Structures are given as structure tokens and as C-alpha cells.
Amino acid sequence: MNKDNDIFRHTETAAEVLRKGGIILYPTDTVWGIGCDACNEKAVEKVTVLKNRPAVKNYIILAADLNMLARYVVQIPDIAYDLISVANKPLTIVYPQGINLAPGVIAADGSVAIRIPAHPFCRALIKKLKRPLLSTSANISGSGSPARYEAIDKELIRMADWTSPPFLEEGTTGKPSSIIRVGSQNEIEIIRP
Fold this sequence. Notes:
nine-stranded mixed beta sheet; 30% helix; 6 helices
């Protein structure tokens, strides 16, 4: 089994589902996630309904790299570059002002939470889609986050339009990311260490 070929084949399939407004279950660098195209308002609404999640609770977005990140925030404060370069575990940064994303992704104050994942499949998928991916734990709102495929509720698997094969979860830490809010003047607030 050639891992690179498998990743390529599955990213092709998953990206096609996402382009059509579908919902997927996939491994990230933290836990298994429910995802959709973060720019597709109807898809974001479908995820909110699927998770039984309050509409006022915002999502984390995954970007492939700094170039993609720059298309979805008004400004990347200098401190964010520093934080990304020294992070030794998954790091989500809350930026002051998100743009070009579905309304359900941007918080009431205009901010948006974005992470650049290290997980090979997750990153390859975002690059193939050429758009950021909404990421929320693969569970019903309020229940535990699944670190492994076996822990995902079978009903969620049934309701998803596509589910990643379990072997692609290699590289998933099983722990949530750190979250740090950055301000336009380089101030920081640690939300989750």
C-alpha cells in the first residue's frame, strides 16, 4: 500500500464531496472532525444542524498555509507569525477580523479562529479543495471529542456524505489544540493552553 497514492485518491474524493456542499468526517492533527467548505453557507448550516450545536457558537477553520490564511483575515498580526513558527503542538489562532467566509464561521465580533494543520491527509485535502475547511469535533455538541475512528458515533458516520478511512488517522494527537487570541496591535490572550 502506497501511502501517498492513498492520500491523493482520498483527497480527490473528499474534495469533490465538499465542492458539492457535502459534509465529511476526517482526521485532523487533533481529533476526528466534521468538516465542510468554510465558504459555503448552506454546508456550514448543515454541520450546525448535524451537531445540534447552537448557531451562536463559532467554528475553527483549517487553512493549508500562510498564503491561504491571508485570504481569510484582514490582517495577520506579526505576533501570529511568531506563534506559528514556534508552536510545538497544534495551535489555533483567533484573528481580529475574518473575511470571505460563510457567515456562521465569523464570530459576532468579526473574529475567526484558524489553524494550519500538520496532519498530512488534512493538509492535502485543504490544498486540493483550494478553500479553507470548517473543522469541529466529530460528535454531537456537548459530548466527548473522538480521538480515534472507533469512538465516532455511528449515526454521525451514517449521516456524513463521506468518511475518511480509519488508516488515515495516523498523526492525530487525540487532544484539542491550544487556542490563542491575537490583536491587531500584537496583544495576545491565551484561551486554551
